[in-house]
Amino acid sequence: MKVFNAARLKSGSREEMRKHLFLVLNSALLWWWVSIPIPGACSQNQTDRLALASFKNEINKDPFGVLSSWNDSTHHCEWQGVLCSKRHPGRVTSLFLRSQGLGGFLSPHIGNLSFLRVMVLQNNSFYGEIPQQIGNLFRLRHLILSNNSFGGPIPSNLSRCSNLETLNLIDNQLVEGIHSDLGSLPRLKALGLTENNLLGSIPPSIGNLSLLEQLSLSQNGLHGEIPKELSRLNRLLLLQLSFNNLTGEIPVGIFNISSIIFFQVGWNQLQGSFPPNIGTTLPSLYSIVANHNSFTGTIPSSLANATDLWELVLESNSFHGPIPKNWGRLKGLRVLALGHNQLQDDLSFISSLANCSNLEILNVDSNLIHGSLPTSIFNLTSIKKISMEANSIQGTIPSALGNLFNLSALNLAHNSLTGPIPDSIGALYNLHPLALAGNKFAGEIPFAIGNMTLLNELYLQSSNFQGYIPQSLSNCTQLLELDLSNNNLIGSVLTPKF
Ligand SMILES: *[C@@H]1O[C@H](CO)[C@@H](O)[C@H](O)[C@H]1NC(C)=O
Ligand SMILES: *[C@@H]1O[C@H](CO)[C@@H](O)[C@H](O)[C@H]1NC(C)=O
Ligand SMILES: *[C@@H]1O[C@H](CO)[C@@H](O)[C@H](O)[C@H]1NC(C)=O
Ligand SMILES: *[C@@H]1O[C@H](CO)[C@@H](O)[C@H](O)[C@H]1NC(C)=O
Ligand SMILES: *[C@@H]1O[C@H](CO)[C@@H](O)[C@H](O)[C@H]1NC(C)=O
Ligand SMILES: *[C@@H]1O[C@H](CO)[C@@H](O)[C@H](O)[C@H]1NC(C)=O
Ligand SMILES: *[C@@H]1O[C@H](CO)[C@@H](O)[C@H](O)[C@H]1NC(C)=O
Ligand SMILES: *[C@@H]1O[C@H](CO)[C@@H](O)[C@H](O)[C@H]1NC(C)=O
Ligand SMILES: *[C@@H]1O[C@H](CO)[C@@H](O)[C@H](O)[C@H]1NC(C)=O
Ligand SMILES: *[C@@H]1O[C@H](CO)[C@@H](O)[C@H](O)[C@H]1NC(C)=O
Ligand SMILES: *[C@@H]1O[C@H](CO)[C@@H](O)[C@H](O)[C@H]1NC(C)=O
Ligand SMILES: *[C@@H]1O[C@H](CO)[C@@H](O)[C@H](O)[C@H]1NC(C)=O
């Protein structure tokens, strides 16, 4: 599910434009919609026409000629991307110019479009500062300037747009901080500032945005603690704070916001542990991304109550203890990524994944996992990637491995696996890469390995293999990396590549 993303505008009839505007604001921006301005009877209004002319004047790149319709022979309400009010003839209510390749400054005269309610300039090449005059647009509800190259600070006068419901400035080059006045936009439902160069801390006043549903601040240089005031955002659906330099613990009150669906705080320096009842206080969780932090404690088994869970990404923290063994109700679970922690487990959690028929990624690399591969793992036929590198897994690989026909990556390197590699591995036609290095296998590399024609990386070094290198390897024409060193192998690889 993509948030703050939208369908593409095709040029064409105004009807199509209205339809697309609706799609963009309704479906792609996910949770809210806006009433669509009614087709307008148009009479002249010089203020708006002049402001639009100034807007056009600052544009120096218009590869698709979208602004060629903005000419003297047509009324400005007929210009492409412009919608006018019915009640106030000639007054512009929407400016919708998404993905048009437009480049240039955003004219300060835009601030004269005082009836403007919607401005969508997403995915163009606007640069320069967002003009302070935007603060004069007190009717503005949806401002979507994402995917441009706007620089400079977030204009402080934006806080005067008191009807703003959507402020989406994602993927620009905005600098300086998030000023606390943004917390005084009483109708704001979505604040998107991800992928900028914002510094400073998250202002506690954001917690005053009582209607806020989406808060997206990832990929900036924000530091300091997550303000406890955010706990008051009791309508929050989406919290994205990943890729910043946030420190401290997550305020406990945030774990009480039962509406949260997306909880993404990865790649920070956050500490503390997850409350044991997280799965009951946040029952709607769909995505938990908390990787690359310093979280401690155990993985709460109450997550089994968050039955919509789709991804659980907790890699590279200091979680310890066993992996919960009650995943059975999470039928939609797709990603279980727990690598690089201190989890102690004997792989018995795997059997409880049997009902997770959508599971695609299982990663428990670099933990304290022992025991042998349970046969139940070979029933997970939806699985695409299994990674269990650098643990203490023992025993053999059963021939049931061949059941995992969707497998595209298998990494069991640096464990204590023994016995031969089963011939059934040849059934894994999609496999690329395969890493089994650093084990204690016996016997030959199976001939069937030549069946894996997509194989691009093959790591079998230091694993005690014997006998001839199978000639079938020459069928693996996609191989870019091959390491067979430190075994007892005879022969050579018959392909011009090596
Ligand atoms: C916009 O309004 C300002 C006054 O607020 C005026 O000076 C300016 O000329 C106007 N621009 C256009 C293009 O009408
Ligand atoms: C002016 O715009 C109309 C469409 O609104 C278009 O048909 C016409 O070709 C344009 N004129 C020029 C000179 O670009
Ligand atoms: C962005 O706009 C360009 C046109 O300039 C278009 O080709 C591209 O598909 C758009 N990207 C998205 C994700 O809509
Ligand atoms: C906007 O940029 C983001 C990240 O750079 C990208 O994922 C997304 O597809 C882009 N969207 C549009 C509409 O261009
Ligand atoms: C910004 O807002 C202040 C009032 O807060 C106002 O005096 C000033 O004219 C505005 N600036 C612009 C460029 O609109
Ligand atoms: C939040 O709003 C209250 C009034 O509702 C105000 O007193 C307080 O200063 C605001 N908090 C912040 C941090 O701006
Ligand atoms: C976070 O801080 C480290 C130094 O402590 C710095 O190297 C890194 O660039 C910072 N990251 C961001 C996203 O600002
Ligand atoms: C969370 O909610 C529970 C029950 O509604 C309440 O007892 C508790 O104090 C809340 N915790 C925080 C930190 O808000
Ligand atoms: C799930 O929630 C119920 C209450 O709704 C609770 O009794 C049960 O212990 C929870 N399960 C787990 C694993 O926490
Ligand atoms: C694997 O699935 C089959 C049928 O789908 C079932 O009979 C068998 O018990 C399962 N094996 C394990 C180990 O879960
Ligand atoms: C390897 O592929 C051949 C067909 O190319 C097939 O007959 C054979 O069963 C496959 N081997 C394995 C182990 O799946
Ligand atoms: C290579 O593949 C072809 C057909 O895909 C098969 O007939 C042949 O036996 C394979 N050769 C080796 C050495 O595996």
Description:
6% of the residues lie in helices and 21% in strands. The chain is mainly β and 498 residues long. Among the domains are: 137 residues, Alpha-Beta Horseshoe (Leucine-rich repeat, LRR (right-handed beta-alpha superhelix)), CATH 3.80.10.10; 101 residues, Leucine-rich repeat, LRR (right-handed beta-alpha superhelix) (Alpha-Beta Horseshoe). The protein has an 18-stranded mixed sheet, with no helix packed on it. Strands 19-21-23-25-27-29 form a 6-stranded parallel sheet, with no helix packed on it. Strands 1-4-6-8 form a 4-stranded mixed sheet. A hairpin with a 7-residue loop joins strand 2 and strand 3. The longest helix is centred in the first third of the chain and has 15 residues. One 2-acetamido-2-deoxy-beta-D-glucopyranose binds next to loops. This is Receptor-like protein kinase At3g47110.
Radius of gyration: 28 Å
Mean pLDDT: 89
CATH homologous superfamily classification of the domain at 1-13 and 272-395: Ribonuclease Inhibitor
**Distance N to C terminus:** 43 Å
Broad structural category: mainly beta
| The CATH class of the domain at 1-13 and 272-395 | Alpha Beta
> Could you say which small molecules are bound to this protein?
2-acetamido-2-deoxy-beta-D-glucopyranose
Helix count, per DSSP?
3
CATH architecture identity of the domain at 1-13 and 272-395? Alpha-Beta Horseshoe
Q: Can you count the beta strands?
A: 33
How much helix, percentage-wise, in residues? under 10%
Strand content: 15-25%
The coarse silhouette is: elongated
Sheet of most strands: 18 strands, mixed
